[in-house]
Design goal:
Order of helices and strands: EEEEEEEEHH
Distance between the termini: 31 Å
CATH superfamily of the largest domain: F0F1 ATP synthase delta/epsilon subunit, N-terminal
CATH architecture of the largest domain: Sandwich
Number of domains: 2
CATH topology of the largest domain: ATP Synthase, domain 1
Strand content: 35-45%
Shape: elongated
CATH class of the largest domain: Mainly Beta
């Protein structure tokens, strides 16, 4: 659907279109977290954050712990805390296979803060059965959960 054309100060016409939507599925080992239509995604790739829109060229990417942001057709932005995983886009559908995933609205801030403190203690070598790598990953996941919780409206 075309909207009214805009006439920028430098001349010419910019035709604005309603953004196209595509399907997003976020799946964790224990449940389906998100299954809906979105107009854009920003995800935490291993090499940095990346974005995708409808009709994007197909690709697969490894994900690290961080925030998955998506925009609904009504313009509302939502966030999911990811614990890593994989992302696949085929142009009409995006799928996230997450190691762990929590909607921002579901996150218990006190528990996430406690998890962060325990992981930091483990990283310092205080009583824990976690390896250094496991402790660092737990810190990254806890921080992404706390960041997601801060986005709650």
């Amino acid at each position: 659907m075309l909207l009214e054309p805009e006439f920028p100060a430098h001349g010419g016409i910019i035709r604005t279109q309603m953004p196209q939507s595509f399907h997003l599925a976020v799946v964790a080992p224990d449940r389906s977290v998100v299954e809906l239509e979105v107009v854009s995604i920003v995800a935490p790739g291993q090499e940095g954050y990346f974005g995708a829109l409808a009709n994007h060229v197909p690709f697969v990417a490894a994900l690290k712990a961080g925030l998955l942001e998506y925009e609904l057709p009504d313009g509302q932005r939502q966030f999911v805390a990811l614990g890593g995983g994989f992302f696949e886009m085929d142009g009409k559908r995006a799928t996230v296979l997450a190691d762990s995933a929590d909607l921002a609205s579901e996150i218990d801030v006190a528990k996430a803060q406690q998890d962060l403190e325990m992981a930091r203690a483990a990283l310092k070598g205080e009583s824990s059965e976690m390896t250094t790598e496991e402790a660092q990953r737990a810190i990254d996941v806890a921080i992404s959960r706390l960041r997601a919780a801060q986005t709650k409206h």
